[in-house]
Structures are given as structure tokens and as C-alpha cells.
Amino acid sequence: MTRFAPFALAPVALAAALLAAPAFAEAEKYTLDPSHSQIVFNYNHLGFSTSYGMFSGFNGEILFDQADPAASSVTVSFPVKTMLTGWQERFDHLMTKDFFDATEDEMVTFTSTGIEVTGEKTAKITGDLTLNGVTKSVVLDAVLNQAGEHPMAKTPWAGFSATTTLIRSDYNLGLFAPYVADEVQVQISVEAQKAAE
Fold it and tell me: Could you give the count of Cα atoms lying within 13 Å of 170 in the half-sphere of its Cβ?
């Protein structure tokens, strides 16, 4: 029986470009809420099933410029070994030389390089994703879910979703392809809170 495959990816880049808040003259810092930020990935396993994994509880920062959204930015970073697969043997295999050969401090990082606002609540966020020691440019299709005052925290808050597709062999993670899909679908959902001044 094939043991599985892929990896996951990244990042999160949630569109600072989309906050619907009062106008201000310069970028303001928002920090991701790690208790409500997840990256879910899935891939086809031999045509028989869809396998899933997740990263959760990570940190990141959005610098949002309401007057010039294209000048906004986002950065996210988290350890590879925080991956959740639901099956210990799969996780253990993904951390071997067959895939990540991950150390305790090996990180997945995403740093935005450009934001294109495409609609009232949508944007394309381009950024550099570093995964398994390889850095490649990726594009996230991002959507603003909601922005406004958090009803309990009483502070500005925003929620975003985003999707992208990664080719795992681009990151030297292509074992078993194409029988186990080379394409990995990534769904991102995050909340961000305005940082205290």
C-alpha cells in the first residue's frame, strides 16, 4: 500500500489589501489570531480518496495601507513540524528524507511581494513561499470575509480566506507523483486583530 504523499504549503497571505475600515494615511499593523488561523491542504490519493492535512496556531503580520492597498504587505512563518495529518505514521514519513527531512526549527515562510486589488472584497496576493528549502513565487486568491469591531475584544478585527494550488515536485516533494497527485490544493482562513499601539 502506498504510504501517501505531499506536503502542504503555505501561506497565508491574507489580504491586507482588503480591509474595509476608516481611511488612514499610513500602514497600520494587524497580527494574525493564531487561535483562528488555519491552512488546510488536500491532494488526490491514487484516485481512491482525498487526503487532508493542516497547519494551525501560527503567527503572522499584516501591514495595511488603506489609502494605497497595493503598498500593504503580509508575512507568515511557522515550523514544518507543526503539520497535522491525523495519522502519526503519515506525519513521521513526511518528516523523513523521502519528503521534508525536517529539523525542529525548519520553517515555512510566506512574504508578499505585491497585491492587486480585483474587486470590493477580492485581491490577488503574490509572494515568495519558502518550503523545503525552495523559494518560489505563488499567487493567493484572497477574499475579505468581514471587517469591523470584534464584539468581545472591542478592537478592529478582520477575517480573510484565500486559495492557491501548489505543485509539490516544485519543492522537491514529488515522491509517488503522478499516482499520488502532484497538485496540492490549499485553503487558508485567518483572523487578524489590530496591534496595540
Answer: 14
Contact criterion met (CB below 8 Å) for 186 and 163: yes
Of 31, 26, 14, which Cα lies nearest the Cα of 65? 26
* Radius of gyration (C-alpha) of the chain in whole angstroms: 17
pTM of the entire predicted model: 0.85
Cell of 126: 503574490
- Are the beta carbons of 148 and 172 closer than 8 angstroms? no
- Cell numbers given for 58: 501560527
Residue type, 110: F
pLDDT in tens, 139-151: 999 998 988 899 9
pLDDT digits (tens, 9 = 90+) for 124-177: 999 999 999 999 999 999 998 988 899 999 999 989 999 999 999 999 999 999
118-to-32, 66, 69, 105, 121 alpha-carbon distances in Å = 23, 15, 11, 36, 8
DSSP strands (E only) in the chain = 28-32, 38-45, 49-56, 59-64, 73-79, 107-117, 122-131, 134-149, 156-167, 183-194
